[in-house]
Write a structure and sequence with these properties.
Layout (H helix, E strand, L loop, with lengths): L10 E4 L13 H10 L4 E3 L2 H7 L1 H11 L2 E2 L2 E5 L6 H20 L5 E4 L16 H22 L3 E3 L16 H11 L7 E6 H4 L5 H12 E6 L23 H10 L6 E3 L12 H14 L2
Helix pairs in contact: 1-3, 4-5, 6-8, 8-9
Bound molecules: zinc ion.
Zinc ion binds next to strand 7.
Length: 292
């Protein structure tokens, strides 16, 4: 396993971690500068942040700092109430793939979606199997285009508590089953984004990480599971402040061949978003060296 204790060259920051500090939206350009000042070599930004900052301006700033993207957040949300909605989702994913390509991202992360409309409180239907079918078809269609332009797609399985509203792919096994059908040759075009917050509880985790192997492990997201977790979406813990055995999971991931960034992704309305971005980033660096 790689030694992270001496430096933080394999640390990446998902920009959601430091975008809402003390009640104010922090511009992406400032987050990039704050990361560059600390020798952080990679980030994973969100599409809305890039849209606000400007795609080309962001690409230029990243190049100027020599900064990489461990991933781009995010594509997906395929299920829809009708055919027009399904088409719109495919179009939107195509644009996301193009943006990821412009930013030279390692992969486009897919939060695949679930019951359409559920995020707003009113699902258009409640047939989860139908949603899973629409997700499968959507990924297949996006993959055709992603292969053409050379942008890997990373399916992120989400904890089953989010099966209704955000993602109906809920285990690593389920994600890998789709990968094996759509990319049987393991070309690297389709894989997974493994986020410890979503998968740490899975009794098949070690087995499925080994199954995934280097070709499928496209991104690795870290944070921690707080006790108690006060909000399912936005009360993630800083690494070391919860019960996830981070080093054990990284050992499995690296034994399977993963050699990329450990991307810190912490949605923390009650704690880290109450502090300054500087304090949060400095803590990420310290914890990356000691507990990741
Ligand atoms: Zn994640």
């Amino acid at each position: 396993m790689r030694d992270f204790s001496q430096d933080h060259r394999w640390l990446s920051i998902n920009t959601a971690t430091v975008r809402k500090q003390q009640g104010a939206e922090v511009p992406l350009a400032r987050i990039i500068d704050q990361c560059a000042q600390r020798g952080i070599r990679a980030i994973s930004p969100w599409r809305d942040q890039v849209a606000t900052a400007g795609l080309d301006a962001t690409a230029r700033q990243l190049r100027a700092h020599g900064m990489a993207l461990s991933g781009y957040c995010r594509g997906g949300f395929y299920p829809a109430a009708d055919a027009a909605g399904l088409r719109a989702a495919l179009d939107d994913n195509r644009r996301a793939i193009d943006e990821a390509k412009t930013l030279d991202a390692a992969c486009l992360v897919l939060v695949v979606g679930a019951l359409p409309g559920a995020l707003d409180g009113t699902p258009h239907y409640t047939d989860l199997a139908r949603a899973r079918g629409e997700v499968f078809d959507g990924i297949a269609a996006s993959l055709d285009y992603a292969r053409q332009v050379g942008m890997p797609l990373a399916i992120e399985p989400l904890h089953p508590m989010q099966a209704a509203d955000r993602a109906c792919i809920n285990t690593l096994e389920q994600a890998l089953d789709i990968c094996d059908v759509l990319d049987a040759q393991k070309t690297g075009a389709l894989g997974v984004a493994l986020d410890v917050y979503h998968v740490w509880w899975d009794p098949k985790l070690a087995q499925q990480i080994a199954r995934a192997g280097r070709e499928r492990l496209l991104a690795y997201h870290v944070c921690d599971w707080r006790l108690p977790t006060r909000d399912l979406l936005s009360d993630r813990g800083m690494m070391g402040d919860g019960v996830i055995e981070l080093k054990k999971i990284r050992q499995w991931v690296e034994a399977a061949g993963f050699a990329g960034y450990a991307e810190v992704e912490i949605f923390s309305a009650l704690d880290w978003w109450q502090r300054t971005g500087e304090e949060t980033l400095d803590t990420c660096i310290a914890r990356h060296r000691t507990v990741v």
